[in-house]
Design a protein that fits this description.
The complex is a heterodimer of chains A (about 290) and B (about 300). Chain A is an alpha/beta fold and about 290 residues long. Chain A has two domains: about 160 residues, 3-Layer(aba) Sandwich (Rossmann fold), CATH 3.40.50; about 100 residues, Transcription Regulator spoIIAA, CATH 3.30.750. Chain A contains eleven helices and eleven strands. In chain A, helix 10 links the parallel strand 9 and strand 10. In chain A, helix 5 runs parallel beside helix 7. The radius of gyration of chain A is 20 Å and the shape is elongated. Chain B has about 300 residues and is α/β, with parallel strands linked by helices. Chain B folds into two domains: about 170 residues, 3-Layer(aba) Sandwich (Rossmann fold); about 120 residues, 2-Layer Sandwich (Heat Shock Protein 90), CATH 3.30.565.10. In chain B, the strands form two sheets. Chain B has a seven-stranded mixed β-sheet with strand order 3-2-4-5-1-6-7, with helices on both faces. Chain B has a five-stranded antiparallel β-sheet with strand order 8-9-10-12-11. In chain B, helix 5 packs antiparallel against helix 7 and helix 8 packs antiparallel against helix 9. The chains are: A alpha/beta (about 290), B alpha/beta (about 300). Chains A and B meet through helix 10 and helix 11 of A and helix 8, helix 9 and helix 10 of B.
């Protein structure tokens, strides 16, 4: 990797929305790993993920992801999208970079309309120089992207095979990003996957002060689309009082006819509910 | 009729004295149209039932094994009883067998008795706390004397000259106990570390043969206290795990912040809220909770009983 970044983030789960990361390596296995880490942690955090890559690369990513989370479920609910480079960026040089930017703006809005807090993008960028015509144009595009992504709150990792870059371009590309993406996958303690049928969220693992805000924003995003939300808590191994209190607040603020169902609540969730008395008519606990 | 609560102790030396005083207290209350609650060991409940005869039907009895498990649950039992009939005064007899309590639990009970004067001050309740002179070491009778404004004896109530200001008493009981130097120490300065502390507690509990439910409750209590330290305290946040006087201690220290209200978390938040459950929840989950602060920061010690030797 090329050093020289100033804001590498090791914690992708709590990534500030709109962070523009890159990975530069001559070893595509490293790039595969960075992509899987970025996509896996983004999905676990409840965001929608778009992976721009070849079919073969997308299949490889699914295989890696399945070790940590239900990747098929993420595909089925549309939380994980894959796209070829051509479909995402176009196949002929754009007359105006603004057109490509508008495409990303639209995708970011679509993510929220479909009940996701944010969109994150992981993209294999090796065809960008060919599309834009020069390395300079690629660097210019990336610089513009940093501002655009902050504006539309879309985080991304741009994956570059350094063997396919002109000498010296790597450093300029690194500087055009907010930082380097990590390639070591530390499994998040909890995962929050969107479910379409029934509408809701599948919660797994532990929820505490480190990640409850992620569950909170995903449930809010789901409730904004359809205020009848079911949380499947079967795989929950821990949840603190703050988590339950926030779920109760969401339930209490739902419009008439809305509800938040806690399905298959484990003992620890029942214990917190019983001791805190944090019930609400719109917070329905089902066994 | 006065609104102010009363908190009276009664030292008895035999079943007859107990039945006479506690029975008389309850009968007087019922005669005035008050509701009645008894939290006590089964043998005491029996004495009261016999003393009251048919009037006992009007009394709500809660076994000490429920009411005082853990000890701070007793507040909740009383508060729930009051909430069930707003505006009606309640007379309460509250007693547990202190002889079976561990030292850390007795310190907490002392706090519970002192804080009761403040927590229930504005509520329509008369609390009578009987103390068994036959079963108690002299030191424990101090609790009866220091934390009750009135004493009941021979059917009448008199002001207690030994009563101490509850805030002074609570301050004296809020001293910091430094962790032993050989304690297992975990740095918990980032939010992500809370999960690691739970894992360490789980591993230690398994090794030590603790009941998994006790460990699960300790994990929850520790998470709540750590969250408070991370959100309201200041770094560094350190966790020490050690054993002390037959108890397992999970000791959470942070760099300090605002002074800790001596009544923080002794009762639940008034309205459902997104926060404020931490210390209160901890007191509902473990055997005893010490809270203290000094120049080294804020210290919260969570105690659970060590498994009995096999």
């Amino acid at each position: 990797m090329i050093l020289g970044s100033h804001r590498a983030s090791a914690d992708l789960c709590s990534l500030v929305p709109g962070t523009h990361l890159c990975a530069l390596d001559h070893d595509v296995a490293v790039l595969d790993r960075v992509a899987a880490t970025f996509v896996g942690q983004g999905l676990a955090a409840g965001d929608q993920l778009l992976y721009v890559a070849s079919e073969e690369q997308a299949d490889g990513l699914l295989g890696t992801l399945s070790q940590h989370l239900d990747a098929r479920q993420a595909l089925a609910s549309g939380q994980l999208l894959t796209s070829s480079f051509g479909d995402a960026y176009g196949t002929s040089p754009p007359e105006d970079l603004g057109t490509v930017a508008d495409g990303f703006r639209l995708a970011a809005r679509q993510a929220q309309k479909r009940g996701f807090p944010r969109l994150r993008v992981a993209a294999r960028m090796d065809q960008l120089a060919g599309l834009l015509g020069s390395s300079d144009a690629v660097v210019a595009w990336e610089r513009m992207s940093t501002g655009l992504q902050r504006e539309i709150q879309v985080s991304s990792v741009c994956l570059y095979d350094t063997d396919r870059l002109e000498v010296g371009v790597g450093a300029a590309l690194a500087r055009a990003h907010d930082g380097l993406a990590p390639d070591v996958d530390v499994a998040p303690i909890g995962s929050f996957l969107a479910v379409d049928e029934p509408w809701g969220v599948q919660v797994r693992g532990e929820v505490d002060v480190s990640n409850r805000h992620l569950l909170h924003r995903l449930v809010l995003s789901r409730a904004a689309v359809l205020p009848r939300v079911r949380l499947d808590l079967d795989g929950v191994t821990f949840a603190d009082a703050g988590t339950i209190a926030r779920l109760r607040s969401i339930a209490a603020a739902l419009p008439d006819g809305g509800h938040l169902v806690l399905e298959r609540a484990p003992a620890v969730v029942r214990r917190v509910l019983e001791l805190t008395g944090l019930g609400h008519p719109k917070l329905v606990v089902e066994s | 009729m006065s609104v102010a609560a009363t908190h009276t102790s009664m030292v008895y030396d035999g079943d007859r004295a107990y039945a006479r005083e506690a029975g008389g207290f309850l009968r007087d209350g019922l005669a005035q149209g008050h509701r009645a609650l008894v939290m006590a060991p089964p043998s005491r409940m029996e004495l009261i039932a016999r003393a009251l005869g048919v009037d006992a039907d009007a009394v709500d009895f809660v076994d000490e094994a429920v009411a005082y498990e853990p000890q701070w649950n007793a507040y909740r039992v009383v508060l729930d009883h009051l909430a069930a009939a707003p505006g009606v005064r309640t007379v309460v007899v509250a007693e547990q067998q202190l002889a079976r309590r561990a030292p850390a639990e007795l310190v907490d009970y002392r706090r519970l008795e002192s804080a009761a004067n403040l927590v229930f001050a504005g509520r329509a309740v008369d609390l009578l706390c009987p103390y068994d002179a036959r079963a108690l070491p002299a030191g424990l009778l101090d609790i009866a004397l220091r934390s009750h404004a009135d004493l009941r004896a021979g059917g009448s109530v008199a002001p207690n000259a030994d009563f101490r200001d509850p805030l002074d008493e609570l301050a004296d009981l809020a001293g910091v106990v430094p962790p032993p130097t050989d304690a297992t120490t975990l740095d918990c300065s980032s939010h992500a570390d809370v999960s690691l502390v739970r894992r360490a507690l789980r591993a230690r509990g398994e090794r030590g043969g603790l009941d998994p439910q006790v460990v699960a409750d300790l994990e929850l209590a520790a998470s709540e206290v750590l969250t408070n330290a991370l959100v309201h305290g200041s770094p560094p946040v350190l966790v020490r795990l050690y054993e002390e006087a037959d108890m397992w201690v999970c000791h959470v220290q942070d760099g300090g912040g605002l002074p800790v209200d001596p009544l923080a978390g002794v009762v639940p938040p008034d309205d459902p809220s997104d926060h404020g459950y931490g210390l209160w929840l901890a007191r509902q989950l473990v055997a005893a909770v010490d809270v203290g602060s000094d120049t080294t920061g804020t210290h919260v010690r969570l105690h659970v009983r060590s498994p009995a030797p096999v």
